[in-house]
Design a protein that fits this description.
The chain has about 110 residues and is α+β, with helices and mostly antiparallel strands. Helices cover about 35% and strands about 25% of the residues. The protein is globular.
Length: about 110
């Protein structure tokens, strides 16, 4: 499995709403994530809105994103979530994820 970490920036005035949205992620979205190889997916949010995401995938980060881009539910979720993020430049959040380079892993 490949470990993937990424960053996004949640708007400070939307942090509480963003957290609330993730208390009840749509079952169809969860199924699509699993179906396209997103495992152990977690999101961590700092008080200033810096969002760190982590997941494991049998493929590359780009392959995992491409798989989700073919899921109709993903377009609906991304459209709903767009107002929560800063600096998307008209793109969806999943198109703006900044992938981090893994520098250490303790087995």
């Amino acid at each position: 499995m490949r470990r993937v970490g990424f960053l996004l920036q949640v708007r400070r005035d939307k942090i509480a709403e963003y957290k609330a949205q993730h208390e009840h992620v749509w079952q169809e979205m969860l199924d699509a994530l699993r179906r396209t190889g997103w495992h152990n997916y977690s999101l961590f949010l700092r008080d200033d809105g810096l969002l760190f995401g982590y997941f494991e995938t049998p493929d590359s980060f780009q392959a995992a994103l491409a798989g989700m881009s073919r899921e109709a539910i993903n377009a609906q979720w991304q459209a709903m979530m767009a107002p929560y993020f800063e600096n998307l430049g008209g793109a969806h959040a999943d198109e703006s994820m900044l992938e981090l380079t893994e520098v250490f892993h303790l087995d």
